[in-house]
Amino acid sequence: MGIALAMAACLAGRKVRFFRVTELITTLLEARDEKTLLRLRSQLARQDVLVLDELGYVPASKAGAELLFDLIGQAYERQSLVVTTNLPFENWTEVLGSERLTGATLDRLTHRCSILEFTGESYRLQDARRRSRKTTKA
Asked: InterPro entries attached here (predicted)?
């Protein structure tokens, strides 16, 4: 879904950056360590849309979670944010660590937003099963 929304925004002439959240956090931590964080934040602030994909697959370090929160806070009400995750909101503390930080992050993300919730079996899993059936029949 994140990729589809990013592509639609690109086709509409918007400037878009797509990140898997783990890669984004690594990039933010490296930029902080290399003293280039302000430049990176400035580059990201010039985007119309930021897509943060797969939040929650790997818990963030305290510093990583704080940098992610800062980025979301910077983008709040200035840019469009697309966040994809399989985690319900009540489990976000497992990823971000602190209840306070999680609450503040969710407050910014859910204010004036559209939440799309999908249920059912994963498309990738359905496709894998279909391919597996074809292979076993051959």
From this structure: IstB_ATP-bd (IPR002611), P-loop_NTPase (IPR027417)
For residues 18 and 50, give the distance between their C-alpha atoms in angstroms, rounded to a whole number. Answer: 6
What Cα–Cα distance (Å) separates residue 96 from each residue in 21, 54, 99, 117, 138?
12, 13, 8, 21, 47
Q: In CATH, what class is 2-137?
A: alpha beta
Positive or negative: CA dihedral 102, 84, 44, 36: positive
The percentage of the chain sitting over the pLDDT mark of 70, rounded to a whole number, equals 97
Q: Where are the domains of the chain?
A: 2-137
Does the pTM surpass 0.85? The reply is yes
Length of the chain: 138
- Token pair belonging to 109: 């993300």
